[in-house]
Amino acid sequence: MSEIRPIEWANGTLKFIDQTRLPLEEVIVEAHGYLEAVDAIKTMRVRGAPAIGVTAAYAVAMAAAELDSSNRDSFLQQLSAAGVEIKAARPTAVNLMWAVNRMIAVASSETDTSRIKDRLVTEAVLIEQEDEAINRLMGSHGKDLIPDGGSVLTHCNAGALATAAFGTAVGVIRASWEDGKRFKVFNTETRPFLQGARLTAWEFKKLGIPSTLVVDSAAGMLMHRGEIGCVITGADRIAANGDTANKIGTYTLAVLAKENGIPFYIAAPTSTVDLSLATGDQIEIEQRSQSEVTEFRGIQVAPEGVEALNPGFDVTPAKYVTAIITEAGVARPPYTESLNLAVRSANY
């Protein structure tokens, strides 16, 4: 299988696949400063919670490179201010905040100002490497949940493009396929940004895994007809009780799966678990531009002036989640216990 690596760090420059251009063009874009990295996150040229976290880590390193570190206190103050800007790029994915906080903590722990910038680059590279290793661990933990000879449905894009490499939910599917299992794969188109149609279908083709693209509203019919054996998605933030924020439409799929007696799984690293939030009611939901709904690639598809609602995410209550696959193993209800144990086991 061909490896997909959406992010690359080289000589102080962050290179990444412009995901807004896929699948028609495979374009590599460069960010030379932290504000360019922030803009890439805002405009969804880089997207997916783990990938956003990795990009944010490199953004902190690039911000540090632009600052005078001769005065440690002033340097840390300015770096923290840059960290606030980076965190504000997108509000829902907790990996963004997690990565920035981790980088700022490393900077604050370094007393030798001559080493601080190099240490931040080293830490960002480590976060990227850890992400791939974590994804592969999730694949190994979750592959037994995919039914051999059955079928699986995934939503949005939780593949290599959403991470440093390998993927979360798609990584579990890939690990199952590489293990010799054969099953049918369905992926939703994921309106309005079409991450499933543009990105996930592209990834499955690159990986050589046959997949069938379905319109979002067809999922219920497929489940009712017995054509879906399980559903697996990624996540952008998971509360302490297991309530999960993911791409808009995930809640609908989870309810439909429950109604039809189908397991609903989530694959996400423990860095996506936010134990500071008791429930998903506390998760901030990003509201995106109306134009993503009323236009497609600059072409108006709705009446001029019509109002459109475009939440980027929804929250799936834990009662609909069969299991959450992490690098520390498969967490099951009650999630207040199993997720806390998983986070502690990961030892971040």
Can you walk through the features of this model?
The protein is built from eleven helices and 16 strands. With 348 residues, it is an alpha/beta fold. Helix content is 40%, strand content 16%. 49% of the residues are buried. It has two domains: 7-135, translation initiation factor eif-2b, domain 1 (Four Helix Bundle (Hemerythrin (Met), subunit A)); 142-346, 3-Layer(aba) Sandwich (Rossmann fold), CATH 3.40.50.10470. The two termini are 31 Å apart. α2 runs antiparallel to α5 (116-142). The strands form four sheets. It has a seven-stranded mixed sheet with strand order 6-5-4-7-10-15-16. Strands 11-8-9-14 form a four-stranded mixed sheet, with helices on one face. A three-stranded antiparallel sheet has the order 1-2-3. The radius of gyration is 20 Å and the shape is globular.
Explain briefly what this protein structure is:
With 348 residues, the protein is of the alpha/beta class. Helix content is 40%, strand content 16%.
For the record, give the distance between the C-alpha atoms at the N and C termini, rounded to a whole number: 31 Å
Any idea what the CATH superfamily of the largest domain is called?
Answer: Translation initiation factor eif-2b, domain 2
Poorly predicted ranges: none
| Radius of gyration of CA atoms, rounded to a whole number | 20 Å
Number of helices: 11
N-to-C series of helices and strands? EEEHHHHHEHEHEHEEEHEEHEEEEEH
Number of domains as seen in the coordinates: 2
Kindly report the CATH topology of the largest domain. Rossmann fold
Q: How much helix is in the residues? A: 40-55%
Structural class, by secondary structure, is: alpha/beta
User: How many strands appear in the DSSP assignment?
Assistant: 16
